[in-house]
Amino acid sequence: MTVGTQVHERRDARGWSVADLAQRAGLSKWVVYLVERGQPISIDAVARLAEALGVRLELGLFDRKRSVQSVRWADAVHSAMGELEARHLRTFGFGIAVDEPYQHFQFAGRADLVAWDTGRRALLHLENRTRFPDLQEMAGSFNAKRAYLGPVLAERLGLPGWRSETHVLVAAWSAEVLHALRLRAATFQALAPDGEGPFEGWWQGAPPSSGRHACLVVLDPVASGRQRLWIGLEAALGARPRHAGYAALAQRLRHAA
Fold first, then answer.
1. Which segment of 104-113, 120-129, 157-166, 244-253 scores lowest on mean pLDDT?
2. Which domain covers residue 153, as residue numbers?
3. Per-residue b or e along 84-107, where b marks 16 or more CB atoms closer than 10 Å to that residue's CB
4. Are 31 and 145 members of one domain?
5. Number of separate domains in the chain
6. Contact 196/244 with Cβ under 8 angstroms?
7. Both 49 and 80 in a single domain?
8. Is 64 part of a structural domain of the chain?
9. To which H or E segment does residue 142 belong?
10. Model pLDDT for residues 14-47, shown as the tens digit of each residue
């Protein structure tokens, strides 16, 4: 993960706006915007952001010739999940936005992927997760988006509101993810209690007609042949892993490219 991605996700999990983080770090808002966009900034500025976010800054030296390929595949799994989802949902004529920013007063962040049907006034939000290193932060970020993303996007699209909202945690189908789900099954069931039905409706081109839904599915972005592409949380708790972990799945994607 890049520094910018980590800064953004930690700020988002705390419910801080860019201005909030800038003030706590003693920096301008523009510097925070730059780092979250992946632009180079001073080490001093990064250190201030790390201190404000309560994390430790670690530095390293890398071979420049090898770094290009490393950066290219740094977030390969997350990117592959988003590409697969966007390509499939677009076939139904849904509006699609990737890495969509939103802000609701002091809460600000980005949605990995959103899809909408203005005729049905239905919204789908997908939060792609390749692993769960900090469950509390993930839950805070997901809950904030469930609460504030919908109204912001409805206003942006000129709609009076949504008849249905479906928020989905989409996790990579790996052994480390399945282990996390089983270890904290009750937590994930509370966070995403609605089963896979609402997501399946979207995946088949028929969004729910009403209600607010929270789901979790496990997805394999390199599924082939007759392999199931995704399964719901309950099935995942007893499923066999498709990949050992993030590194194994990234390696599979690298060979497939």
1. 104-113
2. 76-256
3. bbbeebeeeebebeeebebebeeb
4. no
5. 2
6. no
7. no
8. no
9. helix 135-156
10. 888 888 888 888 888 888 888 887 777 777 788 7
